[in-house]
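Lecture 7, part B: from sequences to assemblies.

Below are the input chains for today's worked example.
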Amino acid sequence: MIFPLVWRVLPGPTALKVIELLVLLLLLVFVLFTWVFPYIAADILPPPDGTVDSTPRP
Amino acid sequence: MTSHDTLPSRHDAQASPDGGAPRKRRPRQTVGGALLALLAELLIIAGAGTGLYVVWTAWWTDVVAVNEQHKLVETLHQPEVKKVAGTERRADVPVLAEPPALSDVFGTMQIPRFGADYTRPIGEGTDREKVLNTIGLGHYQGTAMPGAEGNFAVAGHRVTYGKPLNQIADLKTGDSIVVRVTDAKTKFDNWYVYKVTDSQIVTPDHIETIAPVPNKPGVEPTTDDRWLTLTACHPMWSAAQRYVVHAKMDYWMPASEGTPKELTETPK
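Predicted structure of the full complex, as structure tokens:
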């Protein structure tokens, strides 16, 4: 399974594994915030933009 | 076994096949059980991802956009103004030509009701990516410029991306909306003070709200028709309707003369 696999793959003693895990999570959040979420917001789920418009928007 | 026996470890994996540890052995996993565990993990990941997306839209886009909008106000190089109230002028209103390019920043908006430190840049156009998500307030292209006869119409987010019109529903009749238009090249720098007249909630197809004379499409504006219209989402987080606020110009003043008194008073 995914979580046990990640835990096994991380090298070092438990304390080090915890730190590695935190670094990986921060990296993941950075990637999501910088590239993935802006893409989703722009192309998939545009937030309401507050304009009046004669052409209906999704 | 240590106290960590809920955490799977290499130790568990090795101990299982020969049946050597009878006391606390995990039951052998079936294929169905493994798939269920995988599904559970995927659901946890999806839940965490969705939660993070909400954090990103509701919080992080604001952090980024507010920072960006403060920098944009500085790029206008608006000269420091004297705190004294200048002469209120109602005739010969100077009007800057509409900027030709999308996303040009040509002025700022201050709304005392939104707080004394509320100053946001106004950009040309209402393109979502190029204007509303970055600059914040966007001037509907083709509508009047500040001070001109007609309707200076502006859109802005009510939530996310710096949420410039977050408190639009707090505006009351008589509240001031102060616009400053600055063009460093031509030394154009003027205040325009508008007073809120009314608000309405409409579906997004009601473009007559930004007609030259609001809600009277086809009617030619007269010298008395110097309007400002704000549009934002309604209800918050929804695209179902628009919250629209209309305001009418009260007076204008060269920025070199001072600051409109409305900016130094606190609204009641």
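Note for the exam: Chain A has a mean pLDDT of 85. Keep this in mind when comparing with the next example.
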